[in-house]
Design brief:
The complex is a heterodimer of chains A (409) and B (152). Chain A is mostly helical and 409 residues long. Chain A contains 17 helices and no strands. Classes of the chains: A mainly alpha (409), B mainly alpha (152).
Chain lengths: 409, 152
């Protein structure tokens, strides 16, 4: 019974925890601008994160060490340092976007500018990291994030033509007035939002925090193969709702307030309340995950003690990195930079950093020295190599497309 | 150039190019100016249509006061940003002066309509928003027409 509860809670947490500010913004923006023509990219991304999160979870459960810990040992300190710097910068930028997302969600219920809420958000996130148990933290925000199911209800409430939606998703074409480079640029951003690097750092380090062993492989796999696809369904619903209401009206999404609009029209005030609760929980949970991921990757590279299970006094350097990342992220947003632009840039740079994250996972998951009989099978390797190729293409094309399209204008 | 020098140059180029990717460039020809005017009209129409959906939902009692206040404030900020960017562009010839004048008037009317609903929302007059925002549909239509005309 206890095991079943762990699986259920893990799955629910993964559903709620999958969606973050990147998914909220990218899904809504893409749905409003391109209708259903980029649904295939979202599905591609969800399968990709499943392939690599399963590997990272298996490595954590079998080797008993998180991926980043093994990267330095396997690839050497120099290559691992490049990996660390790239991943850390992208994760810190994502953290800034998540903190802004929490403050923006509060602004939507208070109408007080998000900039005034940011210091309070910083304090809340730090207090939760400092005081709350890992499992409690993960479950509370993951489960509250399930309020985003309201977007699925909103899609039904908007009374769409289901066959028409399916047809447009299955026969994607670049909408009139949009160029192919812009279509590809947003496709890469959407792909990166599903495969954000911090998700695997957090997933594998979280497995160590929860003391996963071989017996927990089923829990890890259930989290991945049920939780992430259902989380992907939430992103799909956000995209579909925007495609149904905002796309025909020619609305371009540039603010979080617009993301809620397709829920407000069919479901009214209760829908708005649930959507904002879901956004708050999803971005708060992701802020915790990204802040911790900054600490995890740095501490694992330098061989420091790390983790929430360890007393802060014993893992002081880990906590200093987490606190520094939080303060730096807050200060970046306090400059007044557009938080949605920060999110868009974080997704593009995440796309560039994807190979740095996923290549080492593939290498380690194939190493019998760490994995014994649990090394990758033929299917995992085939999918892993295929996705690595996709990730390399996305990483190579991201910045040139950003420059060519003037960041998707 | 050494390998190290090339790496430094590549990083420097990236640091210059990436932030510049989001900036608006100058218009050197009348055609370029018209294209930029068309995209300005499209972005402005997006802001007005956002407000229009919100205002109609407010009339049906489907939105909360704080939410619609933020939504309308964001829409107005977006519109003012594209208006300011467009007005700061130098029209390259006399034909462009006419484009500037027509779009400038449309943007001004849209900005007035958005300011009216934003003020009403912040005063708590949520149910009256459809009446206050009666000029929004015409403003959106005018901008959409200009977008089509200038991009053809």
């Amino acid at each position: 019974m206890k095991r079943l509860l762990a699986v259920t809670l893990g799955v629910l947490t993964a559903i709620g925890g999958f969606v973050d500010i990147g998914d909220l913004v990218a899904s809504s923006l893409v749905g409003a601008r391109f209708g259903f023509s980029l649904v295939w990219v979202l599905l591609l991304g969800v399968v990709g994160i499943c392939v690599y999160a399963e590997m990272a979870g298996r490595v954590a459960a079998v080797a008993g060490r998180p991926t980043f810990d093994l990267v330095r040992e396997r690839l050497g300190p120099r290559a691992a340092l490049v990996n660390l710097i790239g991943s850390l910068l992208v994760t810190a930028l994502t953290l800034a976007a998540e903190l802004a997302g929490v403050a923006l969600a509060i602004e939507l219920i208070s109408s007080v500018t998000y900039l005034l809420w940011l210091p309070a958000v910083l304090l809340m996130v730090w207090l939760v990291i400092w005081r709350t148990r890992f499992e409690t933290m993960e479950r509370v925000f993951g489960l509250a994030g399930l309020a985003l199911v309201v977007f699925v209800v909103a899609v039904v409430g908007l009374d769409p033509s289901w066959s028409g939606m399916l047809d447009r998703a299955l026969h994607p074409e670049v909408p009139g007035g949009e160029g192919v480079p812009t279509y590809l640029y947003y496709g890469i951003a959407l792909f990166a939002s599903a495969m954000t690097p911090y998700e695997v750092f957090f997933f594998s380090s979280g497995g160590i925090e929860e003391r996963w062993g071989r017996k927990d492989l089923a829990v890890a796999r259930a989290n991945v193969f049920v939780g992430f696809p259902l989380g992907g369904l939430l992103s799909l619903a956000i995209m579909a709702a925007a495609a149904l209401l905002l796309h025909p009206a020619g609305v371009e999404v540039g603010n979080l307030s617009q993301v809620v609009l397709p829920v407000a029209v069919p479901l009214g005030k209760a829908g708005i309340a649930l959507a904002i609760l879901g956004m708050f929980a999803a971005t708060f949970g992701a802020a915790l995950e990204t802040a911790l991921s900054c600490g995890y990757t740095t501490a694992q590279y330098f061989g420091w003690r790390w983790g929430k299970a360890v007393a802060p006094r014993a893992a002081s350097r880990f906590h200093v990195v987490v606190a520094t990342a939080l303060v730096a992220g807050t200060m970046l947003v306090l400059t007044g930079i557009d938080p949605v632009k920060v999110t868009e840039y974080s997704l593009v740079f995440a796309a560039v950093a994807l190979p740095l994250t996923y290549l080492p996972i593939l290498v380690v998951a194939n190493d019998p020295e760490y994995m014994g009989r649990a090394v990758n099978g033929r299917l995992a390797n085939t999918m892993g190599v295929l996705y690595l190729a996709v990730v390399l293409v996305a990483a190579t094309a991201a910045v040139p497309l950003m420059i060519a399209t003037k960041a998707g204008q | 150039m050494t390998v190290r020098g090339r790496r430094v140059a590549a990083v420097a180029a990236l640091l210059v190019l990436v932030p510049a990717a989001g900036c608006a460039g100058p218009s050197r020809t009348g055609e370029d100016y018209r294209n930029k005017a068309a995209s300005t009209a499209g972005a402005a129409a997006s802001a007005v249509n956002t407000a229009l959906i919100g205002v109609r939902a407010a009339g049906d009692g489907r939105v909360t006061g704080p939410y619609v206040s933020v939504l309308l404030g964001d829409a107005e900020t977006d519109l003012l940003a594209v208006q300011q960017t467009f007005e700061s562009r130098q029209p390259p010839d006399e034909a462009s002066d006419a484009v500037r004048e027509r779009l400038g008037k449309a943007l001004g009317k849209a900005a007035d309509a958005l300011a009216a609903v934003r003020i009403a929302a912040r005063r708590g007059e949520v149910r009256e928003l459809p009446e206050t925002g009666r000029d929004l549909p015409a403003a959106a239509e005018r901008l959409e027409r200009l977008e089509k005309e200038m991009s053809s």
